[in-house]
Amino acid sequence: MEQSLLKIQELKKYFPIRKGLFKKQIGIAKVVDDISFNIGKGEVVGLIGESGAGKSILLQTIALLRQPTEGKVVFNGQDLADCSKKELKKIRKQMQLIPQDHQNSLHPRMTIREILKEPLKIHGIGSKDEKERKARELLELVELESNYLNRFPHQLSGGQKQRVAIARALALRPELILCDEPVSALDVSIQAQILNLFMDLQKQFGLSYLFVAQDLAVLRQISYHILVLYLGKFIEIGLDGIIYENPLHPYTKTFLDASPSIKKNIYEGERIPITWGDVPTPLDPPAGCAFHPRCNQAIEICQKVEPKLEKVNEKHFVACHRVNE
Amino acid sequence: MPNNDQKNLLDVKNLKTHFFLNNGQILRAVDGISFSLKKGECLGIVGESGSGKSVTSRSILNCVESPGKIVDGEILYEGRNLLTMSEKELRKIRGSDISLIFQNPTTALDPLQKIGDQFFETLKAHSSYNNTVIKEKVLETIKSLGFEKPEVIYESYPCDFSPGYIQRIMIALAILCKPKIVIADEPTTTLGVTIQSQILSMLDRLRTELGTSIIMITHDFGVIAQVSTKVMVMYGGQCMEYGPKKDLFLEPKHPYTIGLIRSVPLIEARTIKKLYTIPGSPPEMINLPSGCVFASRCEYVGKKCLTEKPPLKKLNEERYCSCHYPVEFNTRDEIII
Amino acid sequence: MNLDTNIDNNTLLKKDNINFKGKLSRWYRFLLTNKGIFFGSLITFIVIFCVVFAPLVTTYDPLKQDITKRLTPPMWQDGGSIEHILGTDSMGRDLLTRIIYGGRFSLLLGLTSVLIALMVGTLFGLITGYYGGFLENILMRIVDIQLGFPFIILVVIILSIAEPTFWVLSALFSLLLWPGYARVVRSILLSEKSAAYVLAAKSLGASDFRIIIIYIARNIIPSMLLMSTMDIATIIITEAMLGFVGLGTPPPAPTWGNIMADGKNYISTAWWVITFPGVAIWITLFGINLFGDNLQQFVNPKLRKKY
After folding, report:
1. Looking at this predicted complex, what is its ipTM?
2. CA–CA gap between residue B308 and residue B194 (Å, rounded)
3. Looking at the complex, does the CB of residue B273 fall below 8 Å from at least one CB of chain A?
4. What is the mean pLDDT of the segment spanning C24-43?
5. Do A267 and B261 touch (CB under 8 A)?
6. Closest chain A residue to C218 measured between Cα atoms?
7. CA distances from residue A17 to A27, A177, C190 in whole angstroms, order as listed
8. Residues of B whose CB is below 8 A from A278
9. Element holding C105 (H helix, E strand)
């Protein structure tokens, strides 16, 4: 990651927990806690975590839809905290978020035409005819026919809605797209189409993605660099596919194991992957390593001391006490 | 269907469920489907959305909503036809003999009632135990699925848990009356892989330890690979291919089956490369073509496919395929690198 | 096979062209195909027409008394005449004329109060819902207090202090109604504010103002439309009730409540004086409610696809 497009430094997003009539603050939920990473130009970085790990909040904080509690978001060398409103609007053109919940990401009372023209209207780009032409172009990019322009979102299937959401994100020719679980809850056959579309567009425009998923098999198809998020913190970072070849954290191993695999199930006999438990709530995180209640290799130290993200080699970082054994 | 020595628990023969729309059109959601289920088997019904999987599951319980209607066929449960039964007898079977697990766990439980009370009412309606025994049985069932503190779950409300956790509780609810068949309608679609594997292993334990038969409805061949013993592939309301899981995975014959298997993302992949995709999108169910329903998306389409509907041919004892030109495809060479 | 897909595309395109003809023709088709809204709007239209063009529909003065003709029965009864189609009241005033002018008062009152309530309520709802925090707490408590206050007592207090003129009444009704609007606007806003499409719009760089006007208003307006048609109906019947118990605009002003209050003294000898205003209220409410109920089908794109 030499020429970095996005640089996240010690980003934190805390939410106060309030209770009672006077909304007294009784605690802090550390949803995103001390996160740093870079995304280079034209790079695809995969972010994996279960629901409740803080993935969506992290993405929204990076996209400046939420004010970070602490830390820096540097985009193209510009610290977003120092930017004026005008500059921010410009940066928004270059960084787009595709929100989770594709069923709901298009306004139900707008036609596809209106939806695709929205970004151009917001930034006052082009005349009326140009906007229309651009909307058609965008649809073409995501392989939909132009007669979809007059339809309402509810007349589209899940995959088609996701295509429109992608087209909208592309309208301003961004450099970075933050994709929040763009393929979960889609049929597998549709999921494959959307993944391929993401890859085509990436090549065509040299885009960078921060691609969130809950399945390592999905990320395998699109990115070499994987960040593993657990309860607001990275517990393993692996570049260049190292996560798949040599996972070190027990959690990552669980993840790899949980992905359905035709090879393991059909050719190597029946198997039932062993995983248990849920992500704990950030309102009441476990002491020590956040993963220890679910870890089958936990020892005493794991319950008391929180492991730090440590360098294993140039491409691999892990936060686990037992990594050196 | 094969007639082995062991008797079939459920026999569905030529099931047809059609929807009669306002404008006089007929939507053939399920059009002539047959399958059978033995004790301790898990049948996976696979297909894209709109292929009629969910309607099939509803038809089995004979609870298709208007304007849908079961127009033909037989559903034999232990030799008795569910379609000719009275509503009273059916109610006895639903829930106690055959139970359902839904796709969306958060809406399946009443948010204003304690989880335990909902279990309690269900068991009470289907049994004649007294109240203390019922409570004991409920706790026992919850515990049998590996939950650590059944009492805590009993006293909690659905909103206290995550959707993934609720879905596991739903499985406990589904097996409360010791059903012989559990129908799981896309139970993991909205959940992540870790929770998915927990739910699948739970279902698998039901099957192997209690001998419960399972009908697993899904769009994901990856899920099928984990839990099923046999598979039916559905497209456009019709059965494309039917057979034991291993055979189907090793040597799929129907182009649609092959397409679905190939579009599953592989964790073992070495490099980033494009996934195989089935071109086009699922058919409009109202205007199904006269020939093979899959013809317009098929790579191997021939002249015959456009004019003549392929019959469900028997390939061997247990395998059926409805294709004019079955394909020789070796999954091992093509997919596993 | 190629041929097949071509045909398919063409039919699709045609379908879209019809959709594209514009909103007006969609309204038109909707009116013709939905019986409920057809009759609802027909009735409402007739009522509004009569009320607006009252001097053309009837030539009498609603206040002009003629003692010689008091309590003339309707034209089809013995003693009735074609001059007074629905007969006259105790002062010899033409009943039909008074009912029509009474309707003018009721409808105008309903419309004015709802408009005021709508504007105030929407503004409050938007501010409190979007910005939240301290302001929201204060305003929503005001709403709660207001909603908890017994309606009748409030009316009696206010009307005993102030003369029940048109503007006092409309101020009273809008005071009663605005919390409802504020609440609905706020609740829709709260649920929409975190919707995925709002996130997407924010990420595109849309301003708060644009998000409220372009995105959220679209989901609020239909509900407001439905609520206000229903509220107009409520106001009409409440105003009649107030008039009937003597709390409304004082006689001789023609309001439906006043006419009925006058008629109740002669209920055994002249049934028509109290009956026809009742019928007028019933027809008007029926029309408005029928219209309002079926409007839902048009404003909701998911229910609308047939038109």
Report:
1. 0.85
2. 44
3. yes
4. 74
5. no
6. A109
7. 5, 31, 19
8. 162, 164-165, 195
9. helix C95-131
Contact A189 B260 (CB under 8 A): yes
B297 touches chain C (CB under 8 A): no
CATH number at residue C160: 1.10.3720.10
User: Which residues from A are below 8 Å from B269, CB to CB?
Assistant: 220-221
Span C42-67, pLDDT tens digits = 888 888 888 888 787 777 777 777 77
Confidence of residue B336 (pLDDT cuts 50, 70, 90): low
Distance CA B217, CA B232 (A): 10
Asked if residues C120 and C183 have their Cβ atoms less than 8 Å apart, the reply is no
In a domain, C139, yes or no: yes
pLDDT of residue C113: 93
Contacts of B197 in chain A (CB under 8 A): 257-258, 272-273, 275
Instruction: With respect to residue C50, please indicate whether it lies within any of the assigned structural domains.
Output: yes
* Secondary structure percentages of chain C, helix, strand, coil, to 5: 75, 0, 20
- What predicted TM-score, i.e. pTM, was given to this entire model? 0.82
Residues of A in contact with C205 (CB under 8 A): 88-89, 92-93, 119, 122-123
Residue C2 within a domain: no
Number of domains, chain C: 1
Backbone angles phi, psi at B34, to 5 degrees: -130, 135
> Cα separations (Å) of A5 from A40, A43, A48, A68, A78?
5, 9, 20, 19, 10
Domain extent, residue C129, equals: 34-299
Q: To 10 degrees, the CA torsion angle through B126, B83, B46, B231?
A: 90
Taking an 8 Å cut-off on Cβ atoms, the answer to whether A104 and C13 are in contact is no
Q: The tokens of A285 are what?
A: 């995180």
Whether a cis peptide bond, with omega within 30° of 0, leads into B67 is yes
Q: Are C196 and C204 in contact (CB under 8 A)?
A: no
Instruction: Find tokens 């990473």 and name the residue.
Output: A37
Contact C19 A150 (CB under 8 A): yes
Q: Which of B49, B145, B190, B193 to mutate to test the interface with A (most CBs of A within 10 A)?
A: B193
Q: Are B178 and B206 in contact (CB under 8 A)?
A: no
The least confident of A260-264, A310-314, B10-14 is A260-264
Chain C positions touching A109 (Cβ under 8 A) are 218-219, 301
CA angle A289, A293, A299 (to 5 degrees): 65
**Chain A residue closest in CA terms to C300:** A109
Instruction: Calculate the alpha carbon distances from C277 to C64, C247, C256, C282, C298 in Å.
Output: 18, 18, 6, 9, 32
The two three-digit tokens of residue B254, written as one number:
């129907």
> Angle CA(B324)–CA(B283)–CA(B35) in degrees, nearest 5?
60
Q: Which domains does chain A have, with CATH numbers?
A: 4-106+175-318 (3.40.50.300)
- Determine the Cα–Cα distance for residues B249 and B243; give it in Å rounded to an integer: 10
In a domain, C54, yes or no: yes
Question: pLDDT tens for residues C91-108?
Answer: 778 888 888 888 888 889
* Chain C residues near residue B299 by CB distance under 8 angstroms: none
User: C8: nearest CA in chain B?
Assistant: B287
Residue of B296, B298, B305 best to disrupt the C interface, most CBs of C under 10 A: B296
The Cα A255–Cα B104 span in angstroms is 23
What is the least distance, in Å, from the CA of A55 to any CA of chain B? 13
Distance from CA of C55 to the nearest CA of A (A): 43
- Classified as helix, coil or strand, B226 is helix
